[in-house]
Design a protein that fits this description.
Elements (H helix, E strand, L loop, with lengths): L24 E3 L17 E14 L5 E11 L4 E3 L1 H9 L10 H20 L4 E5 L14 E2 L28 E13 L6 E12 L5 H9 L8 H16 L3 E8 L5 E8 L7 H4 L12
Parallel strand pairs: 6-7
Antiparallel strand pairs: 1-4, 2-3, 2-10, 3-5, 7-8, 8-9, 9-10
Length: 290
């Protein structure tokens, strides 16, 4: 059985007590083979950013404590955490008691989560819990142009819904672009349930894609059955292979499901990560699809 199928597609009872045994690690290499990617020679770096909006536990006096948990860990780790297993794990804290005060309880749980996930994924996992007044306004993508708002998309014909990099056309022109689209949809690798989101791309190089062909390519992912992280890496690999840009960033901000969203970020080695999204200590305002 594939490790990612341990919980996905099956009925699961939520743990009533803290239970790290429900966590499932999935080797990244399993989902990179079809792209010809090897862990020893990745064309990108980056992180996976997770937001858990239903994080809660009880303080020692039984008062519920709620917050938003943000997790950040490197895309170069050997493993990723399977999403449903993380949901079950976080729910195992719901009826447990930690800390004489909410602040002490949060500090205690954050250390437990960091320890458990770092051990599971064999990398440094960063975690922060935010309260209802912690959110900042900036998302980091305010300067990106939403392509479907500028192309008269209602007059554009789309008829390819299986991932097809041949849809990408070249302009032959140098420059840089900052594009976003809210038309991203792919499907869970195991359950085939739809996953909705937004994609943001920064590219600099000697040969840029046309906006219309890029949007058609994103639409072609609509029936792709893969995890969020793999979709982001697929977009990165296709753009990198076709246009060979000097700088490339691909971010996929997926809509939360089951109270958790996954936001993978992949960058070429000459770029820095988007600070707001990728910092574990900053909680940014959700974008349209999140």
């Amino acid at each position: 059985m594939q490790p990612e199928a341990t919980h996905l597609g099956k009925k699961s009872s939520y743990p009533q007590q803290y239970d790290p045994s429900v966590l499932v690690a999935v080797p990244r290499k399993l989902n990179r083979k079809h792209l010809g990617l090897t862990d020893s020679d990745l064309p990108f770096s980056g992180v996976d950013v997770w937001h858990a909006y239903e994080f809660s536990f009880l303080s020692k006096n039984g008062l519920p404590v709620v917050g938003i948990l943000k997790l950040v860990y490197p895309a170069t780790s050997d493993f990723l955490v399977e999403s449903k297993s993380l949901k079950l794990y976080l729910n195992s804290f719901n009826m447990e008691r930690f800390g004489e005060t909410p602040e002490k309880g949060i500090a205690e749980i954050v250390e437990i989560i960091k320890t458990d996930l770092s051990k599971l994924l064999r990398c440094d996992v960063q975690a922060t819990v935010f309260d209802h007044i912690s959110m900042t306004n900036a998302t980091g993508f305010e300067e990106y142009t939403i392509i479907e708002d500028t192309l008269a998309a209602e007059n554009m014909t789309c008829n390819k819904y299986t991932e097809n990099p041949e849809l990408l056309d070249e302009t032959g022109l140098p420059g840089e672009l900052k594009w976003g689209t809210h038309l991203l949809r792919s499907n869970c690798k195991i359950t085939h349930q739809p996953d909705w989101g937004s994609a943001y791309v920064y590219m600099k190089g000697d040969n840029l894609p046309t906006a219309q062909s890029f949007l058609k390519y994103i639409v072609s992912l609509r029936n792709k059955n893969h995890f969020h992280e793999e979709i982001c890496e697929t977009i990165f690999k296709r753009l990198s292979d076709r246009f060979q840009p000097s700088q490339l960033l691909v971010t996929c901000l997926y809509t939360r499901r089951g109270g958790i969203d996954i936001c993978p970020v992949r960058i070429s080695h000459k770029l820095d990560l988007p600070v707001g999204l990728c910092s574990p200590n900053i909680l940014t305002k959700p974008t349209f699809r999140r």
